[in-house]
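ok so I'm stuck.
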Amino acid sequence: MNAFTARPEHGWAWVTGASSGIGRAVALRLVEEGYAVVVTARSHEKLVALQHEAEGPGKIVVLDGDVTDPRDMERLLTAIEYEHGRVALAILNAGVAIPVRGDDLHLEAFDRSFAVNLHGVVNCLVPLVEHMKTNGHGQIAIMSSVAGYGGLPMSAAYGATKAALINMTESLKFDLDRIGIRLQLICPGFVATRGTVKSNLPRPALVSADEAAEWICQGLKSKSFEITFPKRFTYAVKLLRLLPYGAYFALVDWLASGPGPHGAAPKHKESPSNKRPRQAV
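replied:
not stuck anymore, here's the structure
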């Protein structure tokens, strides 16, 4: 197992999908911890607003780009190392969640989901691994989801990409460990982002983006391969996969159709620490 754990003095942090949600909250938290952070997304205006909001011993540099363009990501990473310094920590977070109904399928939803969620990560990984090999070490965290553990209603496209990311990250870990690159997998439960706030789907154990960022940043310092939270919920989802398919489908269907906007599951009460989150998103 690769024991390298990035610290601010090792180099820059790079966060993709940083204009909103988890990526935005993680970038702010890393600045508080002293990191110089490059933030990437398509919206330059939102990234500049994030840069102005950041407070702490670290700093934010804006380099907007599109993760679906492999040449753009290669250019961007080269620019980071040439203009600022080596990347020691990368959180590959960019993603989209497009609901898909089985009785109303659209190819575009699958194309877009795979282009951003899966190929977008690979487009960042390819140049990132080459740079970290040259530097001798590095730490990469890939954003997946509990939706990748098993099929969930309305998640045919999103869940498929997240399942692929879980499998890919597990597979790559064997080789990257041997060359000094530490790989981690992030599998959050339901996080209050723009997508989940607008959704009418059940959202059991919902946490804020700031809570998610706190868990993630704690996990980056740990020895764990997987960073998953809140554990009482995510471990319950893992256990569901041990059930026979008949029981699995019946239970998930019951949970998804439970009372209220948050389904039948109990309200989340677990907290990553005694600190109050900075703000609810």
